[in-house]
Amino acid sequence: MPHELPRVETGVEGLDAVLRGGLVAGTSYIIQGHPGAGKTILSNQIAFHHAASGQHVLYVTLLAESHERLFENLSTLTFFDPSKLGNGINYVSAFTTLRDEGLTAVVKLLRQEIGRTKSTLLILDGLLNAREKAESNLDVKTFIAELQGHAAFAGCTVLFLTSSRVDESSPEHTMVDGVIQLKDEIFGVRSARRLQVRKSRGVKAMHGYHQFEILDRGVVVYPRLEAVLGQPSMPDSPTTARTTSGVAELDKMMGGGLQQGSSTLVIGASGTGKTTLGLHFLAQASPEEPTLHFGFYETPERLKLKARTLGLDLDPLLASGALEILWQPSTENLLDGLAHKLLEAVRRRGVKRLFIDGFGGFERAALHPPRLVEFFTALTNELRALNVTAVGTRELTDLFSRQILAPMPEISSVTDNLITLRFVDQHSRLRRLLSIQKVRDSAFDPSIRELAISSQGISLPETFEGAEHALEGTPRLDGRTRS
Amino acid sequence: MRWKARPGWTAGPVLETARCLKREQDRGMTTILVVDDEFLITDILVDALEEEGFRVLTASNGRKALELLDKEVPALVVTDFMMPLMNGLELAQVIKSNPDWARIPIILLSGAQGAIARSRPELFAAVYDKPFRIENVLTAVVEAVSAQRRS
């Protein structure tokens, strides 16, 4: 087992996972980003978390901004605890010392102050000002080296905040043990915040970009799903046990229901019955099989109304807690934020049945769509490992096309079972069709059925018995080829 | 900034008292020591106090304030709470325990430690929470200096 360096938890949701356990104790980091990128909130959040565990923090500003202004801004965030000001976290300004006496005097002041306050975390806001005061790169190196040295002797971890984009060859970058970069970038018309660990000595941090948000509770980092769940969080233990899809006839066609812990993809154009099928699945929620609806389209109220028209009553299931409906309007979402929210809801209630309506909501949130295959693979593998029986929908854009194209590449890595729904035109009447293409490691009934919807819910009559070309949308009984 | 004196602010009674003081000051300038690590606050206090006819000394922390006190005893000390090396509470304790300085009135300007300071009325003549109104602090300075003179 390789030696693990002692860590300081940041307490920032997701960041400790990205850093694989937190900051390395007694080392120094640069947190860099443009003004407004979130450096101050992030570092104060770490400070309050550190102080909450009874340790001391020294927050030193080299900026002209007043501390009162800082406290006013922080007071809008839930982690801000005014009782810690001067009592766990000491906010001091070294601006005058820097301006009047220079870098050496700042080092001396901070060395004395770290010792006096017994601080184990030093945050120095305004590294750029120190750099401007320096006459040479050597001055910057000396300043950082001396501070690092004093801090390390005191067992104190250091965060240098700077608004400049510190170049990789800059003296600051070469001296510190880690660099965390925060960015707020524009994608088309929207913006998205991203965090990147650009350097981390002694730790295999999760490199690459990780999305984050600033919420009332502060910074929340969403580690890139395929990085944090490159391997599922626990070993997969597949079973042959089955659970009902909510439609008895479909269970029979699939060889006894859905395999527990399997994932099923239902594809079809708008109106073909995907959500209706999902509502039958949700209606089988029970205390033994907590159930979650994670949807982008219907609001919970509309979903309940739709269920009632099918003879399904979701209210008692919601009231008993057997069912939870999580609705995310498909607006400006963060892909990894959605995944972490979904997995949190699954883990929180030990969800065993999950209906995702639909995958398109995730695709819309992707700022970099080429990663979707890896993203869905990681999500599906984790759900399998958690033994969640998942049913997801994916809308097809062609309403009446003869061809049905797979909605995404590498579909077998994300789904065990595949069901296609489509409209067919028979005797100048529109009917819905259901066809099973795949049930992993199981025989299934390959017959093409009508998906009939009534106030009693779904039935699957054998309307197209003996017909050909049904999957193309035009079932013919006489077997003639289409002209 | 919210606590900055607005242009054209008036503080009638304060100015009246200040004028009286000014007459007294004809016999010698009254010196105020301002202690704060944040230069913006010391700058604003220095400007406002000098306009009222006071002579002002500044220090960026408690320890530097003590160095100044060794050389010269001011009529009053205005201090911040949270500062490097020695905070405002520690500074007040040292001042009050020294017989040469014990009679100096101390006004504390505090970000969030007002409650701690108010529980020690023997140390502080007045306590103001930041962001404070400069008129209020000036009034307190003038009153404390006058009271000190009278006693």
Automatic annotation (TrEMBL), chain A:
It comes from the Bacteria. Keywords: Hydrolase, Kinase, Phosphoprotein, Repeat, Serine/threonine-protein kinase, Transferase. Its EC number is 2.7.11.1. Residues 6-235, 241-474 form the KaiC domain. GO terms for molecular function: ATP binding; hydrolase activity; protein serine/threonine kinase activity. Transmembrane segments: none annotated. It holds the Pfam family ATPase. This is non-specific serine/threonine protein kinase. It comes from Microvirga aerilata.
